Amino acid sequence: MRILVTGGGGFLGQAIVRRLLDRGDTVSTINRSDYPGLVKLGVTCHRGDIADRQAVMAAADGVDAVIHVAAKAGPGLYAPDFVAANVVGTGNVLEACRKHGVRFLVHTSSPSVVHAGGDIDGDDESLPYPDHFPAPYPATKAEAERLVLAANGDALKACALRPHLIWGPGDNQLLPRLIERNRAGRLKLPAPEKLIDTVYIDNAAEAHVQALDNLTGSATAAGKVYFISNGEPKPVGEMLSMMLEAAGEKPRLGAVSPAVAMVAATLVEWFWRAARRSSDPPLSRFVVEHLATAHWFDISAARRDLGYAPKVSIEEGLRRLANS
Fold first, then answer.
1. Considering the domain boundaries, does residue 8 fall inside one?
2. Cα separation of 236 and 232, whole Å?
3. CA distance 191 to 194
4. pLDDT tens, residue by residue, 281-322
5. Residue 203 vs residues 67, 175, 296, 308, 312: alpha-carbon distances, Å
6. Measured between alpha carbons, how far is 42 from 28 in angstroms, rounded to an integer?
7. Share in percent of the chain as helix, strand, coil (round to 5)
8. pLDDT tens for residues 218-275?
9. Considering the entire predicted model, what is its pTM?
10. Can you give the residue range of the structural domain that contains 133?
């Protein structure tokens, strides 16, 4: 197949691209930067912003399917940036699919779209969207997910995946931030015993390919959304410590009261907004909520419909990370 991977130069995007190439698909990407390494692999790389309608239209011309990974993530408070990347960008992808007759779309969403501020203990995809969100990221990802699911139909088979905390060798998001905070002594957890899910990069990439194969085959996943994880929930303090140790760092995790952390986050957000800063704040209510609550998920739907089975365990993933 001819497949466009938006954000194909990112951590997850590159892992998906390599899997598609390995099985013989023709792959193209659209990214804001150049990726010579992908070009050497035979990937057609379009340079452009996902929020640029014309750039997306050009990139999607002539493809059979799109795996839409590109997004803006993080705890930032400047909503326009998130709206442009996550809502406008997804709208552009859907419009391009309609214009060029692209028949299959796999969208990368996030479990944060159903996080209402409390514990999520093994719940499934029946969880509703909350009435409000603590940050632009989950709000815009929820809107994007709704757009994708609403677009599913006879002309376009579409589904969405919600991978949770992707990690592994080559991670340029989660692990670097974790290491930076750990070295600065700012890694303080309000509830280190709470269980969380994570997903190793190879497993997350494989789930996307399996979702595409389902859409092009039985299409039982069309119009649906799936949680994706390793299926091995761990206490957040333990998981972060293991990741730091695998990266060659000595964990320096501290503790803080959830109430104190939330008050501090609220004050930081007030100052950030008052100063009209567009950068990520050092602390936010979104981050505190996720560190203070359990969030692990039932992945039986992905196992049933997609044939998803995490091949790389957390133990093996940590070993690979340590050897990278």
1. yes
2. 12
3. 6
4. 988 999 899 899 999 999 999 999 999 999 999 999 999 999
5. 16, 17, 16, 9, 7
6. 9
7. 45, 15, 40
8. 999 999 999 999 999 999 999 999 999 999 999 999 999 999 999 999 999 999 989 8
9. 0.96
10. 2-167+198-232+297-314
**Inter-residue contact 174 to 244 (CB < 8 Å):** no
Q: Is residue 67 situated within a structural domain? A: yes
Contacts of 149 (CB under 8 A, 6+ apart): 158, 159, 160, 223, 224, 225
211-226 CB burial, b ≥16 within 10 A, e <16:
bbbbbeeeeebbbbbb
Helices (H), 136-251: 136-151, 174-183, 201-216, 236-246
The two three-digit tokens of residue 122, written as one number: 């093994």
Domain count, the chain: 1
Assess if residue 91 is contained within a domain: yes
Asked whether the predicted pLDDT for residue 279 surpasses 90, the reply is no
Catalytic residue, candidates 137, 200, 226, 308:
137
Residue position matching structure tokens 């497993």: 203
Other Cβ atoms closer than 10 A to 184? 10
Distance separating alpha carbons of residues 69 and 66, to the nearest angstrom: 9
Q: What is the pLDDT at residue 186?
A: 86
| CATH number of the domain where residue 100 is located | 3.40.50.720
Active site residue 35: no
Q: What's the confidence (pLDDT) of residue 276?
A: 86
Locate 58 and state its tokens: 């050009």
Q: What is the pLDDT of residue 297?
A: 97
Q: Which position has the higher pLDDT, 30 or 273? A: 30
- Residue 287 inside a domain? The answer is no
Where is 6: in which H helix or E strand? Answer: strand 2-6
